[in-house]
Each structure stands twice: as structure tokens, then as C-alpha cells.
Predict the 3D structure of the following.
Amino acid sequence: MRKKTVLSVILPITGVLVLGIAGFLLYPRLFQPYSPFGSLDMDALAKVPEFKATLDQLEQTRGKLEKEMEEALKKENPQSPRTEALMTTYNQKLLSEQETLLAPLIGRRDACVAAVARERKLDIVLDGRIVVCGVRDITRDVIKKFRSGKEFPPADMTVASAGKVGFVDQGKILELGQVRRVHQEYMQFYKELQVHFEAEARGTSERYQKELMEKYNQALAKKKAESVQPLFSRIDETIQDTAKAVGLSLVLDKPQVLFGGKDITPLVIQKLGE
């Protein structure tokens, strides 16, 4: 009789435990609240054979161009204007190779992201490297579509509901005339300081060179505080004011937003007076 009583107590408890564990395991799937945000693991995508092969090819090209530049620079005076021209040419060639090799893959990636976002009814898809939690990971679905061989319509980043998330193309901001002028002035000042330092430090003690370096670093920091920082503070304030005016609660850099969001770059540029 006692054995039967013990069993009658143990079995319900065991049943409750089993149901409890099952419920705990299934809860995230059954009751996960809908989120209009998605994320893509860019590191995982880079390991996809098509991407990996292209990135390896790009790395080989970069190494080849770098060696060519180093050989060319050996024949030039470091202070010669031609040195800067050679480095500019190297950067342009590398950017051109990146565009040629990566553009088709990035276009297909964006089309696959857009297709998955529409299927999942997502408003925004973010670069997974900036996400900690709270969004849906669509990496598997995107990779599956990417490798399927099927064609998908080109991504239209304006199709999705913008919600309260926007983005700014910082590349376009950095190309503005006022930004380029300040950058050029700062770099010119830096080069002049470098020439003066090398001339003044030549043949002196290590201690004096260290003191001299501190002096020139202070001059460089002062120049940055006087010219560069005020401009970028103004740009930050303009972005914040623009975001507030259009009702955004979050603004990211464009590469971090793979789908959706509101592009406020034109409004920011307009407010900056260009």
C-alpha cells in the first residue's frame, strides 16, 4: 500500500518535471514576441565558398600591389610630391579591384537579404557584429538563398518600413568640400611638423628627441582641437537634429544597415549647407 502511495506521488511529480522542462525548452520558440529587426552574421557569410574565394583573390591582389608600390617608393625621396602620388595611385587601384571583385557578390547578398526580410516581414536587417540580442538571426536563410543559384530581384532599401531607425552614409559626409578642406589643412600641418621634427631631431640625444616628440604631439593635438573637432561636433549635432526632426530614435552608419531604415544623408548634407 505504501509503495503504491509513493508511486502515485512520484509519477505526478515526474510528469510535472518533464512538462516543465519541455515547456522551458519550447517557450522561446512558441512564445517569442515578434520583432521587426533581423541580423546577418557577416563573418559567417565571409566563409561561404564564393565569398572566401573572392576575398582570397583580393588579398593576393593587395599583396601584389603593395610590393609594386614599395619597389616604386624605394626610388623616390620620401618628401617628394611623387611619393604621395604613388600612394594615391596604389589606393585607387586597390579600390578598383575591390569594386570589380566584390560588387557582384554584394549585390547578390543584398538581394538575398531583401528576399528573406520580405518573407519574415522584417523592417530592418542589421550587421550582426553590432547586435547583442533581441533580433532575429537570418544568416542561415540568407546563405541558403545565396547558394541556391536562383535569381532574386535587386534589393530596394527603401521598400521596408523605416520605423524609427535611420542611417547616414559617412562616406558621403567625408567627401563634402568643407570636410576635405579641413582634412587637407590638418594633413599639411602634420607633414610640416614631421619635416621640422626630423630636421631638429637629427643628431640629438634620445631624451631630447622624446621631449621634441611630446612638443610636436601637443601642437598636433591643438591643431586638431581648433579645426577638426569643431567640424565633426557640428556634423554630429546636425545628424542628431535631423534624426529628431524626422522622428528617429536610432541612427547608424550605412554599412551597418543591410536592409530597411531611413536614409537621412541628403537631409544632413542640406543642413550642413552643401
